[in-house]
Design brief:
globular; homodimer; 17 strands; 14-stranded antiparallel β-sheet; two-stranded antiparallel ribbon; Thioesterase family protein (chains A, B); TesB_ACOT8-like_N (chains A, B); 12% helix; 4 helices; ACOT8-like_C (chains A, B); Porin; 279 residues; mainly beta; Sec_Metab_Biosynth-Assoc (chains A, B)
């Protein structure tokens, strides 16, 4: 019974190829990944990214193209726990990169459309010339765990139980009714069951922290219109450092930029989403 | 003969609905939009965004969804001057936003796949709470026009003749063999023929400045893997201010973030692309 030891995240993104329909993969969205009445958008992106990884690696000409390198998701309707179907279509296969689309639906209603390019992150060259610096955070044991979150928040966010998330005390004033107004939330992240990070997990992490609008004094969930994640390196085992920030809330929308850094201090993912301001 | 007075940009993105194939639009990529041996990626994105705008506005249920709100392009092969076909598919029509895909091809070879959400930017609410500030630039007449660009650059970039672009003297050290190393290029932008900005033009502008890698001492063209533009407001007439910047060149790729500000000081577009480091 290997499922007994499989991690919650691997169960969450598990897919079975459909025997009669090439490119189709079936899965089950678990109730444990809900937030604010829907299934978390990062988990949905990881499911779609996983389906495309399976589709590319099933073909000899793109067998090594396992990792999402860039993935864009457009959110069409709220996903709910239960069966999910992902239909993939390979658009182009190149030597280093392959591009495909994925349509994630439930009961015939499309939830998410994805366009993505996969490749082999381990084969990227080793040069790093970056001016970006990891966020300065107190050590995890001096940050604030989910157990301190307001009960109303946890009640709406079953997925928080899957996370060992420690937020920087400087960016959680909102939980005490004193949002900083700077539009920035940062902290440490790992999965509660110890499952180590990999590129698919980074897709979840890019949408895992509370919306930055909390830090602007706007409680409530912020529906994602679009989320693009660039995967820049395979993450090392251990803690991830995550920063979410916004600069431009305007016209009923805001952008949320995320950076994910691994334990070696490497910037492993950069993402941006466009979301609606909570009502 | 209205074409005689139509702007170069409107000619560049002009499309004709195919009489027998719903959702198909045909156009012509002009030689005047070439750069580094291909047609500029921002122009291609504007062609695809225009096709989706036509597709949405042709349907009564999405008639007002004229403007791209978020658009993601995945670049598959280099486009060349000549006929182009755009096949659109509407994925979902909502009350405020409609989502669709566009495949741009030449002679049966796909150049660009696009996933985008359109809406009506004029209908967005008026609230602006932004911490972003426009770039500080010397006035246009104290910036450096294209006429001062190295001849080798202009020879490879016919599209520069379409632009009235004035770069900040502080960010053109690379043109004199002294790149600043900061990974930032900024300046003023308008079309040479005086055509005023609109949302489709902003898609071009997001990819109009020289690659930021020039400022890192890496000449050569940087092929775009993926480019997403968020349109945040309709631009006012007049000059645009544009900033391109990168923070993380690593593993053979870099991100290029762009901001476009209009003459009223409003942040009208934010974009990010993932591109390959020039060889």
């Amino acid at each position: 019974m290997t499922t007994a030891i499989r991690s919650e995240f691997d169960q969450g993104i598990a897919l079975t190829p459909h025997p009669d329909e090439p490119g189709r993969y079936d899965g089950e969205l678990g109730a444990g990944w809900q937030i604010g009445g829907g299934v978390n958008g990062g988990l949905l992106l990881a499911v779609a990214g996983h389906a495309l990884s399976l589709a590319h690696t099933a073909r000899p000409e793109s067998a090594g193209h396992t990792d999402p390198v860039s993935i864009s998701g457009y959110y069409l309707s709220a996903a709910t726990p239960g069966p999910v179907t992902v239909r993939t279509d390979v658009v182009r296969t190149g030597r280093k990169l392959s591009t495909g689309t994925a349509a994630l639906s439930q009961d015939g209603v499309e939830r998410l459309r994805v366009l993505a390019t996969h490749g082999d992150l381990a084969a990227h060259d080793g040069e790093v010339r970056t001016t970006a610096a990891p966020p300065q955070l107190p050590p995890p044991d001096q940050c604030v765990g989910v157990e301190h979150a307001p009960k109303e928040l946890i009640a709406q966010a079953a997925l928080l139980e899957r996370f060992d998330m420690r937020l920087d005390p400087a960016s959680i004033g909102w939980a005490l009714g004193q949002p900083s107004g700077s539009g920035r939330i940062q902290g440490w992240f790992r999965l509660a069951d110890g499952r180590e990070p990999d590129p698919l997990l980074l897709l979840l992490v890019a949408d895992a922290l509370p919306p930055v609008t909390f830090d602007l004094g706007m409680p409530g969930w912020a529906p994602t219109v679009e989320l693009t994640v660039h995967l820049r390196a395979k993450p090392a085992p251990g803690w991830l450092r995550v920063v979410h920030a916004t600069r431009n809330l305007a016209g009923g929308y805001f952008e949320e930029d995320a950076e994910v850094w691994d334990e070696t201090g490497r910037l492993v993912a950069q993402s941006r989403q466009l979301a609606r301001v909570p009502r």
